[in-house]
Amino acid sequence: MELSCWMRRLALVLAVAGAVSSWAPPAEASARSSYLVRLLKGSSQFRVRVQAAISLGGSADEPEVVKALSQALSDDHPAVRAAAATSLGRIGNSSALGALRNAAKDGEAPVRKAVKAAIAKLGSSRSTGGAVAIQAPSGPATFYVAVGALASNAQGVDPAVLARGREFIRGKVGALDGVALAPGDESPKRVKSVLKKRKLKGFFIDSSITSVEARPGGGTRVAVSIIVATYPGRDMRAILRGAATAIGSGSSTRRQALEGALSGAMRQLPAALTRSR
What we know:
By secondary structure, the chain is α/β, with parallel strands linked by helices. The chain has 11 helices and 5 strands.
């Protein structure tokens, strides 16, 4: 009885939360998100975890937030799992689709309903900053996409940062509907064989950091450029650009700015692939 009552209350709270958006300056938003993530992961009170999950749905699309909410899909309490699923749908990061699909057979009907709605929201055809979902990954893939190394036109960028940036891009590409992620170290003959056998369209992603700037008053702005080319031929089809500013100092700030810039550019990728068919 208590669980049923709580799930009804949660449904009302989530309905209200879905209609409300919140904004805070980047530094405050990041600190708030980190605090909520700690509550979601560490509180012994399920009501606190539920509220944290709901509140994180109004956060920016940050890897830390998406990861924490994805992990919360396995929380002991169904109200937390349902809140996490709904918030993942609100944030709209398609990298959460795998975790959501794994939760699609949850033992509680309200959780399954929330998961189903989140999957539909992330996988439906829509325009979000130029991005359009391609097709559900439960069907056959349409595109075969390889990701090259992340380069930098800005001086002083650590090679380790470039390596992590490439893996970040691979994660984004691999989460896209209708995309099969290519190893990237195949011979042209092997690529053509895969494309022919699986009836896929091949693309190659080349990316670079075009600038890293210190901002007045603190913070870092990073701009990136992503070239979409055919694969294996490497004929250019589109150029995607993104930029983001993170407030603070140190390597974590630069990482947040880089990932934000890459995310902004990657939102345009599905539409670019579809146009280049």
